[in-house]
Amino acid sequence: MAWILLLVAGCLEIVWASAMKLSNGFTRPAASIVTIVAMIGSFALLAAAMRQLPLGTAYMIWTGIGAVGAFIVGVVMLGESISAARLLAAALIVAGMALMKLSSS
């Protein structure tokens, strides 16, 4: 169950990071509200997952999901640039998350 909570928390991190970009510095109310609500949900689920998972594992997976997810949203939905170096960086984050998961008890 903790892993499911962590996955949802990571997905909410993608939501709040993307909504924050769309809020234009918190000048757009709807995107600003989505940012704040998703952020609270993400932190609450991360906290719940940390009851059962080690700090380093939970935090690394949460930030990794958010980082790679935000990268994908930026490229796919916001037209941000893509390069071999950026793809390699995202792949290394995913590899690190996989290794962290495999090394967790």
What can you tell me about this protein's structure?
The protein has four helices and no strands. Helix 1 (2-22) packs antiparallel against helix 2 and helix 3 runs antiparallel to helix 4 (84-103). It is flat, with a radius of gyration of 14 Å. The chain is mostly helical. The model has no long low-confidence stretch (mean pLDDT 95). It has one domain. GO terms for molecular function: transmembrane transporter activity. This is Guanidinium exporter. InterPro entries: EmrE-like, Small_drug/metabolite_transptr, Small_multidrug_res. One of its GO terms (biological process) is xenobiotic detoxification by transmembrane export across the plasma membrane.
